[in-house]
Amino acid sequence: MSDNTPQVGYLDASSAAEWRAFFAAGETFAVPLDRDAVNRRMRANTTVMVVASAVIVVSLGAGTAIALGTWGRALTFVLLFVLAAVTLIVWVKFFWIRRRLRALTASGDEYLSVDANGIRLAGTVPVAWTDIVGGVGFDDRAVRVALLRRPAARISLAAGESRSEVVLGFRETRALRTAAHPGLRHMFIVGSPPMSGGVRLPLDVALEPDAVLPTLAALWAAGEQAGVDIVLTRDYGLIGRLTTHVLLGKRPTELS
């Protein structure tokens, strides 16, 4: 990659110039956590996980009864265990979402601040731009969901799934994670070498709706000024490749 210019819909030329001037003047962009929204999603997540757990228990119980020959037929047995398996996958998905939500509840009132020197996560974790290798951000809230998927999508969004995120790759993720408040440590992605790791920040889940795009713009502009590429895109393939790339400690411009 050789160009970090945001795709149309994130920033136009005029807005980009304004953000560059904002940080060149030494200003700081800070955005508060929408704690009420996070708590609502936490409650919905709890409901989904309780219902999923009940479905798994009932399905396995009924399947076991069939296996012991007390009632039912083989087809029913198979269907019940398929239901249990699919519901378990759903449960695991919302378990991981719940870990991220719990980290958000541990955040200070300030969710993120950005300036010419770096960022501050959750009001307490400073990260200099020199410690950030790059990042990728996206906002899919306006993307239409297929009609048949809409009920499931509404449940997922209510229970904490994010459609707007930024992933930042760090040089020393373990040190940052260790220094962070214990409640915030699930925000960090720490892997085995060669993965350097980083952080995956949900935006629409944590912020007021009108704050999402300005946050992406601020990260892009301040990063550009510091020589750190934060790529804003709606290309799903590129998002996936860049996420892996920056978490491996590589700059976005190194992606071939």
What does this structure look like?
With 256 residues, the protein is of the alpha+beta class. The protein folds into 2 domains: 1-33 and 109-256, no CATH class; 35-106. It is built from 7 helices and 9 strands. It has helices spanning 13-24, 35-67, 74-105, 150-158, 173-179, 212-226, 236-247; strands spanning 29-32, 110-114, 118-121, 125-128, 132-139, 164-170, 188-189, 198-202, 230-232. The strands form 2 sheets. Strands 7-8-6-5-9 form a 5-stranded mixed β-sheet, sandwiched between helices. It has a 4-stranded antiparallel β-sheet with strand order 1-2-3-4. A hairpin with a 3-residue loop joins strand 3 and strand 4 (125-128). Helix 2 runs antiparallel to helix 3 and helix 2 packs across helix 4 (150-158). The longest helix is centred in the first third of the chain and has 33 residues, at 35-67. The N and C termini lie close together (6 Å). The model has no long low-confidence stretch (mean pLDDT 89).
